Amino acid sequence: MHELALLIAAGIASGTPLLLAGLGLLLNERAGVVNLGAEGLMLIAAVAGFGIAFYTGQTWLALLGGALAAAVFSALLAWMVVYLNTNQYASGLALSLFGAGISAFVGAALVGKKLEIETSEKLPFLGDLPFFGPALFQQHTMVYIAVALCFGMVFFLYHTKTGRLLRGIGESPASAHALGYPVQRIRWLSLVIGGAFCGLAGAYLSVIYAPLWVEGMVAGRGWIALALTVFATWRPWRVLMGAYLFGSVTMLQLHLQAIGIEIPTQFMSMLPYVATIIVLALISRNPHWIRANIPASLGKPFHPG
Amino acid sequence: MIVLEKRQHPSPWMTYLSPVISIVLTFLIASFVVSAMGKDPIKVLSLFTLEPLSGKRAIGEVMLKATPLILCSLGLAFCFRSNVWNIGAEGQFLLGAIGAGGTAMWLTEAGVAGSGWLWISLALLLGAFAGACWAAITAWLRDRANANEILVSLMLVYVANLLLSYLVFGPWKDPKGWNFPQTLRFADSLSIGRLGTGMRVHWGFVVALISAAAMLWLMFFTSLGARLRVGGLAPGAARFAGFSSRESLWTVLLCSGAFAGLAGAMEVLGPMGQLTPHVSTGYGFTAIIVAFIARLNPLACILASFLLSMLMIGGELAQSRVGLPASVSSMFQGALLMMLLMVDSFINYRLRWRPGAAKGLKRDA
Q1: Structural domain includes residue A300
Q2: Contact B338 A95 (CB under 8 A)
Q3: pLDDT over threshold 70, residue A260
Q4: B328, B188: one domain
Q5: Nearest Cβ partner of B155 from A84, A266, A276?
Q6: Do B285 and B365 fall into the same domain?
Q7: Could you tell me the residue range of the domain that residue B90 belongs to?
């Protein structure tokens, strides 16, 4: 039983960056923009966050700094795809490549450095519960904040005027424009905020989850988060479910080893990537299911006049 | 407020100028970054431009690194032209390396000697085949399950990396190799011959040039090429004309996988001579940038490969000569692609000053 509780706890911890990035990408895609730069944004935020945490020792400052760094670069991407009308796929890809390069470049001096940071804390009362305590309530505060952000995202998208407008833009930017709404500004903002979410995810990885900086440490989580939005058919709660599920798959490898199942480590490490491919194929197989849910203007540029 | 206005006709000047402008802009940014780090920008920039071309040996290195870039970018250009977003050339490259490396390892162990060229061709073919098979997974999932090819091909890069790591750390490890993660050194007869003395560039470079010519012919002088290009430019028109999108999907992905696989195969049978975890230094990803800079044109891919090859070598030199991290190269590569995309938008758009536009009166034109 204790094993299971630990597995759940580890799954939630490792699913949190996927949840944060997935929510950000969901916001972008609901507005009709695919952000293939997620991986690069997470790397930039990871190195920025780790640097701040290393030099100041302030965890929250590091997380905010990471989010801010990613938001700045996301704003650049947004300016390109929204105002200059560049190809969304190519531009995002470029940002991912650039992010990988710049993070390795800036982070070269930080490799091998250690952080003195408390990475988890027990909640009062709840943390002492049998089973549920160790499984759910002995995490870093950021894990709960990620869940709260998911609540927030649901509220924003479905219960506020701006959220509904954003979804409307994702369906038909031309109609929103005809009604006089600032389509480009909202798309731009959604990318900046979505980028900040990716940034939080990246900084969480390097400052709290790892906590260390290694070149390319995001290891495809940005891409997995992109697949998550498809898996979740663009709904926040399903992003949360999917993120924890994928987090658990990642953790499963360690636990299988602990039980004594002998599979080469490399095959274990393939699990999240293979799982992503399989899940993506299973979900996308039903074209009606996807077509009924996908924001209609996803990936299509919109330029007024 | 300044707004972007669509041009009546795309500017022909910008089409050719934009790669040049973006290279200049990237170098400007680069010198800014370098001087911010307290290094002499002129000296660092010369490492990226003049040094790689100084002397026969250095030029040989540029050609050596350009070889896999040309091959990978040819396949990618083909894919992008027909609107198939294969970004997993890196994985297909690694599978090619595994296929050819495994063959060469087996041949060496079996002590097969004799006519090297025959065996080399076999190993190269198997490498290309392995790369094509890897790409076929992406094609199959796209075709049968409608799975997004960007994500699938990219996930397969990670899987390929781990597969290679498993092989060289596990069953393929050289028993006499002091426990290093590498295969045994292949027999000398299995190594691709060099083009000249004092240079490491091998006959694979010639193969890459021939491939570029072949791709040019396939893309622009055959009906298959025309069908594929129409499918990318105007999917609706292609469907109306009865061109199969499945045909183009499979053709471009298999072709691109085979080219990337061949590149990987030539890398292990050429300069490496054995399989290690570090077969690729990101050739498959750099090739994406090459393909875009080359405007998806096979002949331009050769030129762009030289440019990016110089950037890669410049990064290594910057590390050894002035102590900058080697990743300076991948940073500049990414910046170059971003610059290109930005500058490219001025082919089809121009900036216009429109008073009052900021107040939401955008629809007066």
Answers
A1: no
A2: yes
A3: yes
A4: no
A5: A276
A6: no
A7: 57-320
Query: Domain check: are B257 and B335 in the same one?
Result: no
Closest CA–CA distance from residue A290 to any residue of chain B (Å): 10
B14 & B126 share domain: no
From chain B, the residues in CB contact with A89 under 8 A are 85, 150
Is residue A24 a part of any domain in this protein? yes
Size of interface A-B (CB pairs under 8 A): 157
Contact yes or no for B73/B287 (Cβ under 8 A): yes
B257 and B291 in a single domain? The answer is yes
CATH number assigned to the domain comprising residue A158 = 1.10.3470
CATH number of domain containing B90: 1.10.3470
B216 Cβ under 8 Å from any chain A Cβ: no
The reply to whether B71 and B83 lie within a common domain is yes
Percent helix, strand and coil across chain B, each to the nearest 5? 75, 5, 25
Q: Is residue B146 part of a domain?
A: yes
Q: Percentage of chain A with pLDDT > 90?
A: 67
Task: List average pLDDT for each run of 10 residues in chain B, which is 365 residues long.
Answer: 77 83 92 86 88 89 95 95 93 96 90 78 95 97 92 96 93 83 86 85 93 94 89 84 86 96 95 90 93 93 95 91 86 93 86 64 43
pLDDT at B273: 87
Q: What is the DSSP string of B227-246?
A: HHHHHHH-HHHHHHTT--HH
Q: Does residue B211 sit in the same domain as residue B281?
A: yes
CA–CA distance from A85 to each of A25, A88, B25, B242, B363 (Å)? 19, 8, 20, 31, 18
Chain A residues with beta carbon closer than 8 angstroms to that of B165 = 266
Size of chain B in residues:
365
No. of H helices and E strands in chain B? 13, 2
Give residue A119's pLDDT: 64
Q: Which domain holds residue A206?
A: 2-293
Tell if the CB–CB gap between A277 and B345 is shorter than 8 Å. no
Say how far apart CA B243 and CA B224 lie, in whole Å. 10
User: Dihedral of CA B304/B307/B313/B314: which sign?
Assistant: negative
Q: How far is A150 from chain B (nearest CA, A)?
A: 24
Residues B81 and B212 in one domain: yes
Tens digits of per-residue pLDDT, A64-107? 999 999 999 999 999 999 988 889 999 999 999 999 999 999 99
Residues of A in contact with B338 (CB under 8 A): 76, 80, 91, 94-95, 98
Q: Which of A39, A88, A97, A103 to mutate to test the interface with B (most CBs of B within 10 A)?
A: A97
Nearest CA-CA distance, residue A41 and chain B, Å: 13
Nearest chain B residue (CA) to A97: B334
Q: Does residue A103 fall inside a structural domain?
A: yes
Domains contained in chain A, number:
1
SS3 of residue B4 by DSSP:
strand
DSSP letter, residue B194 = B
Most A-contacting residue of B90, B162, B278 (CB-CB within 10 A), to test interface: B162
- B 308-347 residues with CB < 8 A to A: 324-325, 327-335, 337-338, 341-342, 344-345
B155 touching chain A per CB within 8 A:
yes
